[in-house]
Amino acid sequence: MRPTFAPSRTPSHRAIKAVIPAAGLGTRFLPATKATPKEMLPVVDKPAIQYVVEEAVEAGLSDVLMVTGRNKRALEDHFDSNYELESALKRKGDTDRLARVQESSALADLHYVRQGDPRGLGHAVLCAEQHVANQPFAVLLGDDLIDPRDQLLRRMVEVQEQKGGSVIALMEVDPADIHMYGCAAIKRTTEDAVVTITGLVEKPAAGEAPSTYAVIGRYVLDPAVFDVLRTTRPGRGGEIQLTDALQELVCDENLGGPVHGIVFRGRRYDTGDRGDYLRAIVRLACERPDLGPDFQAWLRDFVREMA
Q1: Share of the chain above pLDDT 90, in %
Q2: How large is the average pLDDT for residues 297-301?
Q3: Is Chloroplast tagged as a keyword (predicted)?
């Protein structure tokens, strides 16, 4: 029998852990991802995964677990010290590049666990149970980069502390695109951008979506989700879907408390699609003070030539 929900009165300074599933094969980016993890593909001059870890740390989550798979050793190497490279940069007196190299190894307290058999996002989250233990935790998907100026994850943690249960990030999308996402039915609350989730469906068929609110890759979850995931049957694509487990929590608050959503209206960069990946690089490069002015000037000339 699953345990019932008992609301905790945890103080707001509680430190929660972050989980980053990173076991996917990255087939949409083949052949680039044949030998390189998709999470290590560069976005301007940093791998995508570093932006995600930086987001967790900025929100106060310095304990980070990566759920990895085969051929993901490069992730661990990137966040480890590289003594040979650092020594070479020190000898050259290249302090700027040395600082950038050392930054990734000092970002967070990084841990790793192997998923083994890739059975979907829900299964990847279940692999984090031993590390997370009986505490709320955040899940950050590496395909979604959230602009650090928008503070989405920090707000989600605050809402979870205030209301208990779980909190998921939502974004309103074009009705023609909702079939590509998990979709939420919602009920408004008195708080701006905070909604109560009344239903969830994974990638609904056209015309069957309960709304245009798509689930994007940020979650703050009650640990009761582990009990649900252990008995969640494979769903769409033959995988254990996190959306299906959250739907069960929505249907029975006694399992793990309520499920709320934060409607995000900020800047999100989708690196899981090749076209959006390229657009993300252009947007971020344009905003960089060291790259933006020259790059924007070139881009304007290029667009004029293409017109």
Answers
A1: 63
A2: 96
A3: no
Same domain, 236 and 162: yes
**What is the number of H-type helices and E-type strands within the chain?**
12, 13
More confident residue, 253 or 199: 199
Give the Cα separation of 112 and 21 in Å (integer).
Answer: 10
pLDDT of residue 256: 80
Give residue for tokens 């590049």: 97
97 and 226 assigned to the same domain: yes
Please check whether residues 72 and 160 belong to one and the same domain: yes
Question: Which residues are CB-neighbours of 171 under 8 A, at least 6 positions away?
Answer: 213, 214, 216, 263, 264, 265, 268
- Do 218 and 204 sit in the same domain of this protein? yes
> CB count, 10 Å around CB of 132?
22
Asked whether residue 116 carries a pLDDT value surpassing 70, the answer given is yes
pLDDT number for residue 233: 83
Q: Are strands 166-172 and 259-263 parallel, antiparallel or unpaired?
A: parallel
DSSP string over 213-277: EEEEEEEEE-THHHHHHHTPPP-GGGS--HHHHHHHHHH-HHHH--EEEEE--S-EEE-SSHHHH
Whether residue 196 is found in the same domain as residue 284: no
Residue 217 belongs to what domain range? Answer: 17-272
User: What integer pLDDT is reported at residue 8 of this predicted model?
Assistant: 38
